[in-house]
Amino acid sequence: MALTPHLVENLFTAGLGGAVVGAVRYSDYPPAATSIPRVGGYRSVSLEAILARRPDLVVAWAPASEGDLVARLRALGIPVYVDDPTAFDDIAATLRDLGRLGGQAKTGEDAAARFIARMQALKDQYSARAPVSVFYAVATEPLITIGGASMIGAAIRLCGGRNVFEDADVAAPRVGVESLIARDPAAIVTTRSGDEDTADDVFWRRYDTLSAVRHDRFIRLARDEISRPTVRMADATEALCTGLDRVRQAVSPAPATAPRP
C-alpha cells in the first residue's frame, strides 16, 4: 500500500504494481494506478481503510506522514517503509529498496541503474555548457519559485542552468515581481498538468519588461514529471535541458564559420 502518488509510481517501476492494494487520491500514473482502491487523500489517510486492505507493507513519504500514523501502523504490527528523497540517487535507492522488500530485487535494481545512467548522460552532455539564467515558476499569484536546495534546483544545475534564486534560504520562497525583474532571467520555466488553461500565460504577458517574456523564452514542463521523485524525473530533466539549450543558442548563437580562403 502506498500513501503518496510518487510511491505508487515507484512500486510499479520496481515491478510491484500488481501487488498494490491501496493508494491515495491523485495516484494517477501509470494509468493502471487509477483502479487501485483509495484509502484517503494526500493528507487525510484513513487508518481504518488501510487496515481493511490488510497490507503486508505500507510505504509512506516522510513530509506527508500524518501525525503518529506511521507509529500506530507499526504498533499494530504492519511494517512501514518511509521515503524522503532529496537527491537523484535517493530515487534509485528507493527503487532498490522497494524491489528488495517486494521480492523483485532485480527489477528494482535494473530500474535504478537505468535512471542513474540517464541522469549521468544528461549531466555529461549539458552541465558544462554556458550557463543560462532561469526562473522556475511554482505558482504565479502569489509568485513562488524554488531555491537551490531542492531536486528541481539540482535538475537546473545539471542542465547548465543558473537559478536566479539559487541563494534562497527556503525550499519554495515567495518572491516579488520587482525582485524577479531586477534579476531578469534569460528563461522562465512553467509547469502544467494536462490541458490546464492559460491563466499563467495571461499573468506573464503583464511583465514584458522581462527579457524572457519579451522574447518568448518559456520552457513548459509536465508538472508531475518534474515534481514527483520518480524515474519520470529523467524525462522532465531532459525536456528542461533541451529547452535551456534552445535558449542558450538564442542568447549566445554560435559564431559563423569564416569562409575558407
Radius of gyration: 21 Å
> If strands are numbered along the chain, what order do they take across the biggest sheet?
6-5-7-8
* Range of strand content: 5-15%
Instruction: Output the number of helix runs.
Output: 11
**Share in helix:** 40-55%
Main β-sheet, in a few words?
4 strands, parallel
What overall geometry do the principal axes of the alpha carbons give? Answer: globular
Give a description of the structure.
This protein is 42% helix and 12% strand. It is of the alpha/beta class and 261 residues long. Helix 4 runs antiparallel to helix 5 (105-126) and helix 5 (105-126) packs parallel to helix 11. The longest helix is centred in the middle third of the chain and has 22 residues, at 105-126. It is globular and about 60 Å long.
Summarize the structure in short.
It contains eleven helices and eight strands.
Features of this protein?
261 residues; alpha/beta; four-stranded parallel β-sheet; 11 helices; two-stranded antiparallel ribbon
Topology overview:
Elements: H1 5-13, E1 40-41, E2 44-45, H2 47-53, E3 58-61, H3 69-75, E4 80-83, H4 88-101, H5 105-126, E5 132-136, H6 151-158, E6 161-163, H7 177-183, E7 187-192, H8 199-205, H9 211-214, E8 218-222, H10 223-227, H11 232-251
Parallel strand pairs: 3-4, 5-6, 5-7, 7-8
Antiparallel strand pairs: 1-2
Helix pairs in contact: 4-5, 5-11
